Amino acid sequence: MKPLNTLLSALLLSAVFSLTSVQADEATTAVNINNASIEQLEKIKGIGSKKAQAILDYRMQHGNFESIDDLTKVKGIGSKFIDKNRAWLSAQ
In DSSP terms, which residues pair with 90 in a beta bridge? Predict the structure, then answer.
């Protein structure tokens, strides 16, 4: 019984460490709002197809965003969204 518990514990720890490293890799990849595609924008929590299209439309009409905070100029995107997602956004 003890070898089984040891094996299960090792498998559980392995799974936890592998998931942690995947999340860390994803978290370090910021989406550049000045050149992201609709598909890339939709990967950000809180952005669906309509908001992604609104970002592209705004970018086409007004040019590149100078900062992440400029996203508030896009209808439907507020400062709370930016604060929650700042780590995953880039304007550079």
Answer: 32
Residue-level pLDDT at 27: 46
pLDDT digit string (tens) for 25-36? Answer: 444 589 999 999
Instruction: Give 31-63 pLDDT, tens digit per residue.
Output: 999 999 999 999 999 999 999 999 999 999 999
Dihedral sign from CA coordinates of 37, 91, 52, 57: negative
Name the helix (H) or strand (E) containing 43.
none
Q: Which CATH architecture has domain 2-90?
A: Orthogonal Bundle (1.10)
Count the neighbouring beta carbons within 10 Å of the beta carbon of residue 41.
20
Residue tagged 């809180």 (tokens): 46
- 41, 34, 87, 39: which is closest to 58 by C-alpha? 34
